[in-house]
Specification:
CATH architecture of the largest domain: 3-Layer(aba) Sandwich
Number of helices: 7
Helix content: 25-40%
Number of domains: 2
Shape: globular
CATH superfamily of the largest domain: Tetrapyrrole methylase, N-terminal domain
């Protein structure tokens, strides 16, 4: 039996890691750290830092790094993601079989929270569906939306109004969701908000939330949309990658 703990580690600030997450890290016999390529080396560097600082001196936890399979960029997005997840599940299974052939406790450090636009739970489910004796545990983490609203010092929702959380792809393809007063947008490849009529929309945007290179912009969409797109492109060029999120509200 493998006990797999998916441990939310927040968005880049080590102080956001919960005590429960620290305990789960130290309970693990094996921690798997994914490498996503040189362009995103900051992400594995942070995980290495957390392991260095949070694992107790007496811990016998082994830390093993692996190269994450790359997603096919073909037009069939859902099919490409399905194949990608299958490939990742295969890598996980091979690593567990190699390093814990008799079973044991595995930890994986998940950016943000495992429940919000992260596929680790779905990938773990594939292992179980394939016959792996697997117990899945989750330690929740601080999400980018929590950090975004904290840094801008705003509530996520307008008074007594709903919020819809969506992706940049869906916002671009389907426009403003029905009956939503506020829309939180994640996984935007860049500027999906520019596809909306900007009148009456206010935006709170943040990139690299929780990290020392954090950037924030807010304002009426028609006034700041171009600045956000320009800033985003410059930051991506400078760092080789970008992770951003934003909240839109009808005012």
């Amino acid at each position: 039996m493998i006990q797999l703990s998916l441990i939310g580690i927040g968005t880049g600030n080590p102080e956001h890691v919960t005590l429960a997450a620290v305990r789960a890290l130290n309970d693990a016999e094996l921690i798997l750290l994914p490498r996503k390529g040189d362009g995103k080396s900051d992400l594995v560097d942070l995980r290495r830092l957390l392991c260095r600082d949070l694992l107790e001196a007496s811990s016998r936890t082994r830390v093993v790094e692996f190269d994450l399979p790359q997603r096919d960029g073909r037009a069939d997005y859902l099919g490409a993601v399905d194949d990608w997840h299958e490939a990742i599940a295969g890598v996980w299974a091979a690593l567990m079989a190699t390093h814990l052939p008799e079973g044991g406790r595995v930890g994986m450090l998940i950016w943000g929270d495992p429940s919000l636009y992260d596929s680790s739970l779905r990938i773990a489910g594939r292992l179980r569906d394939a016959g792996q004796a697997l117990e899945i545990r989750v330690e929740p983490g601080i999400t980018s939306l929590q950090v975004l609203t904290a840094e801008h010092r705003i509530p996520l929702n307008a008074l007594a109004e709903p919020v819809q959380i969506t992706t940049g792809r869906r916002l671009r393809e389907r426009g403003w969701p029905d009956d939503a007063a506020s829309v939180a947008v994640m996984l935007d490849s860049g500027g999906a908000f520019a596809s909306l009529p900007p009148e009456g929309l206010y935006i709170w945007w943040g990139a690299y939330l929780g990290m020392d290179k954090q950037r924030l912009i807010d304002g009426w969409l028609e006034d700041v949309a171009a600045s956000i797109i320009e800033q985003r492109a410059a930051l991506r060029e400078r760092h080789g990658w970008i992770m951003d999120v934003y909240l839109l509200r009808r005012m």
